[in-house]
Design a protein that fits this description.
292 residues; alpha/beta; 6-stranded parallel β-sheet; 6 strands
Amino acid sequence: MVTALGWRDTSKVQGGMTAKSILITGCSSGIGYDAAITMQAMGWRVFASCRKQDDCNRLQELGLDSPRIDYQDVESIKSGLDQVLEATGGTLDAVFNNGAFAVPGAVEDLPTDALRDIFEANFFGWHELTRLIIPIMRQQGHGRIINNSSVLGMVPARWRGAYVSTKYALEGLTDVLRIEMRDTPIHIILIEPGPVTSKIRKNAIPHFERWIDWEASPRAAQYKSGLRKRLYESRGPDPFELPPSAVTRRLVRALTASKPKPRYFVTTPTYLMGTLRRVLPSRTLDWVTAKS
């Protein structure tokens, strides 16, 4: 059956049981795409949102429901969620906040407007969508809000100040929300991947070129010998890099566990850095992370 929105009505699965629903953002590729395909195969009603309409159209051709949600466009957040709720009859079992980008560059070279730009996409938009969803989950009496963070939400790394700052902020906001929602039936969960195969490095190039005047920087030689090579030269997978399916496996656990953990680590570096952050003095941890 096709709904008024032009989407397939997949609200029923075998046996006449109502399928659980999930909204996943950032589904054009990588983690979001793998999560959407997997959850749909498991029988979930998946709404796989993308920032660009062309990507939404491509996912719809693959049989996925795909509303357009751009975290930097508040109206798209509201209209995208409205489309989801119209299709489900006003309910939503889970949301996986996932879409994000990076602006690589030294902190001293980052224009403040670059930080404003990345915070809109990686933090403020997530908060906007989450606030809209909480009343729905309160009314229905259940729900799971899962935020995809990063090992860089726990430890810093050079050249990544903009991205790190958004993930540090996300971790703090999510921790507080989890505490505040303890008296509700809504679970708040973080997933913290390390190196995972994605297009984030490639997608960071336009932001680097837009915001970073590296040739005028006192670190120009370091950019030339280091960061620019990492951005523009293909060197194969990073050490310990895992495919997006590794994140999806943690997502499935977060969605299906009767008592989900507050955090799910993904990849060896995340486990390692999680331990080092607890046991090492700050200066020693700085020395370790400066090598990355």
